[in-house]
Amino acid sequence: MRLGVIGHTGYADLPEILDSLFRLAPSLGLKLEFEREMHEVAGAGTRLEDPQTIDALITLGGDGTLLRGARLLAGAPVPILGVNLGRLGFLTTCGTDGIEEAVRLLASGNYVAEKRMCLKAGAVDGGGKVRQEWLALNDVVVHKGGFARVVRLGIAVNGDSIGTYAADGVIISTPTGSTAYSLSAGGPVVVPTVESMILTPISAHTLGVRPLVLPPDAEIAIDTSKSSEEMLVTIDGQVGTQLVPGEKLVVRKADRPVRIVRLPGASFFEKMRVKLGWGDLPGRD
């Protein structure tokens, strides 16, 4: 098995984890392939040249590292095993204490590759030409620049206008991203395997604008021409660009999902209870 390895090099536990991977690899038949920064830290193994050709990907860090790994794969049907080295790690498969067992299960095929819907977002100019496109596992956010002013965004779904949002911006999230920024902005929690798109306003300035849950085949178009402010688009909180005046952002379901490794006995609701405190008041037994 060709196992790609990417990670955040700032974690103190990283050298110990890499030692564990090198120790396990021969007995499990793993060929470790590291991205450039990780290869320099590991000092051994093979350099990861083409993510499309690996059999599985392990991400060492937090949710942000897993999101970066999903974009790196660019839709390739490669399962991602996320190892949480940080605090929350809601998307990751296991923590540092469970990495050896997780890698053994991965190598033996004793896991579920849970398909997660992604979004494809494109900046479209006035002539209908797509200037730039992105893949998002969590969310696509259209928001203002550095000034604390309300922006006006024209929102259409499948060509049908649903109104003009007066807000700080809007979030279009996947079910996976429903527990991220969208949740903080008042959006609903959606079970990750229930395909849908969630449209959530950020600090809406009217009571008539509320989050919407849309079908997965919807196409959402966001028109920024009614706003005089500089508008930005951010993908998964990590990459993005400034929207040029006259451009629209068009968001739809991506053609291929991301596959996240889930181990036997793990469940979405358990993570909700443990990591988000779902279902009870803090401090209660």
List keywords for this structure.
285 residues; Tumour Suppressor Smad4; 2 domains; six-stranded antiparallel beta sheet; eight-stranded mixed beta sheet; single chain; 36% strand; alpha/beta; Rossmann fold
Describe the structure.
This protein is of the alpha/beta class. The protein has two domains: 2-116 and 257-276, Rossmann fold; 119-253, Probable inorganic polyphosphate/atp-NAD kinase, domain 2 (Tumour Suppressor Smad4), CATH 2.60.200. It has six helices and 20 strands. It has helices at residues 14-28, 36-42, 63-73, 99-108, 181-184, 268-276; strands at residues 2-7, 31-34, 46-47, 56-61, 79-84, 94-95, 112-116, 119-124, 130-136, 139-144, 151-157, 160-167, 169-173, 197-202, 212-214, 220-223, 231-235, 239-243, 248-253, 258-262. The strands form three sheets. Strands 1, 2, 3, 4, 5, 6, 7 and 20 form an eight-stranded mixed β-sheet that branches. It starts with a strand and ends in a 9-residue tail after the last helix. The model has no long low-confidence stretch (mean pLDDT 90).
Structure summary:
This protein has helices spanning 14-28, 36-42, 63-73, 99-108, 181-184, 268-276; strands at residues 2-7, 31-34, 46-47, 56-61, 79-84, 94-95, 112-116, 119-124, 130-136, 139-144, 151-157, 160-167, 169-173, 197-202, 212-214, 220-223, 231-235, 239-243, 248-253, 258-262.
Layout of SSEs?
Elements (H helix, E strand, L loop, with lengths): L1 E6 L6 H15 L2 E4 L1 H7 L3 E2 L8 E6 L1 H11 L5 E6 L9 E2 L3 H10 L3 E5 L2 E6 L5 E7 L2 E6 L6 E7 L2 E8 L1 E5 L7 H4 L12 E6 L9 E3 L5 E4 L7 E5 L3 E5 L4 E6 L4 E5 L5 H9 L9
Parallel strand pairs: 1-2, 1-4, 2-3, 4-5, 5-6, 5-20
Antiparallel strand pairs: 7-20, 8-9, 8-19, 10-13, 10-17, 11-12, 11-16, 13-14, 14-15, 16-19, 17-18
Helix pairs in contact: 1-4
